[in-house]
Amino acid sequence: MDFRRAGVTQLVECDLAKVDVAGSNPVSRSKNFPATTTMHPRLTRLLYCVFLAMASAFSQAQPAAPADGPHFLSGDRLQRPANYREWVWLSSGLGMSYFTSQAGADPRFDNVFVTPAAYRSFLQTGQWPDQTMFVLEVRASESKGSINQSGHYQGALVGIEAEVKNERRFPGKWAFFGFHGGGDSAEAFPKSESCYSCHAQNGAVDNTFVQFYPTLLEIAKQKGTLTKSH
User: Fold this and answer.
1) Which of 64, 74, 101, 103 is most buried, most CB within 10 Å of its CB?
2) What is the mean pLDDT of residues 181-202?
3) Does residue 142 sit in helix, strand or coil?
């Protein structure tokens, strides 16, 4: 183990001259070491310092929770990620609808973000790993403002939804969430919601609409991970 990577400094900072070993202090001899030890005092001090360093390494080098990705509170209640806009942006849509409808004068924007670790994994494999999390950010569109005279630009936040892959937590591996009203957490949508069947039937790669993410669509084609319908 590399103690420097684990943030351990006891090994180099331990003062061998100050470590009590058998034969150097009657109190330490009775409490810390067997009285019959025949080990050289300096070697004993060195081993004691190594022990301190290893103990600190095991206590400090515990795997930390990922900064990005799904974090659940009680049960299946998902915490809304505060930093999702620091994730990888995949694509934006304007006035998109999966049902026949006519867009209004100011259609909404959809912005899609995914966790960086999942994105890097997809680039390598063309598939989404467990713990993948998408955020769909919905914003109003504006057409008149400042110097703009045509087209649309993004306006106020309307809503945030999420899609999470967790093979142990969800029977179908994926679940959907909606953070409505500015909530900091949300329960998974019930399986009766249309988003489950829609994604399962129309997703280009593993329950996700990669067909709308042009850069990842090319990756999926190269890796051969597109569903048969695509």
Assistant:
1) 103
2) 93
3) strand
